[in-house]
Amino acid sequence: MTLKIVLINPPVVKPSEPPAGIAKLAGCLKANGVSYQIIDANVEGIHYLLGQTAFENEWPDKWSKRACKNLEANIAALQNTETYKNKSRYSRAAQDVNRVLHLAGKPYGAHLTLSDFTNNMLAPARSADLLKAAQMPDNNPFYPYFSARLMAVMQDEPEFVGFSVNYLSQALCAFAMIGFIRNINPGIKIVLGGSLVTSWAALGVGKDKFAGFIDEMIAGAGEEKLLELLGVEYGHKKSSPDYDDFPAQFYFSPGFVLPYSASRGCYWRGCAFCPERAEENPYLPLSAAQINQELPQLVKKYQPALVHLLDNALSPVMLKNLAQHPPGASWYGFARVSKELTDDDFCLSLKKSGCVMLKLGIESGDQEVLDKLNKGINLEDASKALKALKKVGIAAYVYLLFGTPPEIEESAQKTLNFTVAHSDCIDFLNLAIFNLPVANDTAQNLQTENFYEGDLSLYRDFRHPAGWDRQNARNFLEKTFKKHPAVAPIIKRLPEFFTSNHAPFFKMI
Ligand code: SF4
Description:
Elements: E1 5-8, H1 20-31, E2 36-39, H2 41-56, H3 62-69, H4 71-78, H5 87-105, E3 110-112, E4 117-119, H6 127-135, H7 143-154, E5 160-164, H8 168-184, E6 189-193, H9 195-202, E7 216-217, H10 223-230, E8 257-260, E9 263-264, H11 275-278, E10 284-285, H12 288-302, E11 306-314, H13 316-324, E12 331-335, H14 344-352, E13 355-363, H15 367-372, H16 379-392, E14 395-402, H17 409-421, E15 428-433, E16 436-437, E17 447-448, E18 459-460, E19 462-463, H18 470-481, H19 488-493, H20 503-507
Parallel strand pairs: 1-2, 1-5, 5-6, 6-7, 8-11, 11-12, 12-13, 13-14, 14-15
Antiparallel strand pairs: 3-4, 9-10, 16-18, 17-19
Helix pairs in contact: 2-3, 2-5, 3-5, 4-5, 6-8, 7-8, 13-14, 14-16, 17-18
Bound molecules: iron/sulfur cluster.
Iron/sulfur cluster is lined by residues 266, 268-271, 274, 276-277, 312-313, 336, 361.
């Protein structure tokens, strides 16, 4: 049988788990009898670069020497649960592995980390730069890896090659790989999908922008559209994600992490300035029956150390279902503050079902700001939920957002006060400065400015109505918020580079 399609996860995303989108497509292709091959070029490429950099070079400074010498031990440490008992040991391992990766990117003018990829000369949000990356694939640090890997896979003469691009940090490498394929075999059809591509499509960006390199762009859920493109009838619609062909031993986690989406979109979709609202993505949950059958089966098959629920927000209905039908392994995911979470017994039932951590978007400690953002939560409930989670032993990973249009300095101070008052219940903090999505219905009253990154930028600049601009918000964060003695230890707890992907492991020991 000739190879119909190769599905590629391009670098760079956190290499802690396999990509869920490609696993979903793989399950669908397998169920429908289509020949395919998977390449997790992210984790393969990172291992390749680390190995080459550590063993083929002599570095002058002490840190680089130590990081190269201990590379294998440090990778093994990140894959060992014991390391997660000692944050200093973990930090040293993560920073040293990252140091080696950083060295690999240097000769190419690239800033390469375990969670990001940027280039001094090329911006991933500028289509002209993506085309440049495609025209000069050998200017990419992953070139030595992907040129050999793609050459080998081309022996099987695939008709299509699909790239799943979910983050901006993948875009330049994806286009470098696309350019390489075009050079060696111009006849192969190149398909681009993934959530970043879905966001581009919502901006009106189509394949014409990348003429000569991209044959098809798929926005949204890819299964049906991909089969249509491949000329295959969508006979078997109910397929589970398939992780058989991913290199499980390569991932930088202490045990296999099984990503699983129980829904697409967001059941709330109300928060002003959220891309989910701006892009009007529909909420498409799987049925409880499907989840209850599929998830335990996947757990049985892959024996994961942890299930990562990828939903934008697990609805109360979904949480109740998980409590009643535990997946059979520890799990974590995003939830909204709801009345249910303020109830000790409900939280206990989640804990018993395997929940080790919930990510909660609380955003602000000022109720007025939350109301103006249409967040749909109140601080009283947030306070009760944090206390209930603490009581039953579920870690809280709290997201806060600074510099939103309704925020002023006094509001930011209230956020600090709220955080300090709940510092014993907050295990991890994600602190972000607000970005204004391009397609936004609530931005009408704001004075907006030109795109600051490029024609593919999902965000734009705006003039803060009260003068509390990004710089002010950033100063407050760095000089006041992070320095507070009750907050600083929470920030220190955050796993370097892997953040929420590794945070649950610190709570499972
Ligand atoms: S809950 Fe999260 S995903 Fe849903 S609208 Fe709000 S910010 Fe967006």
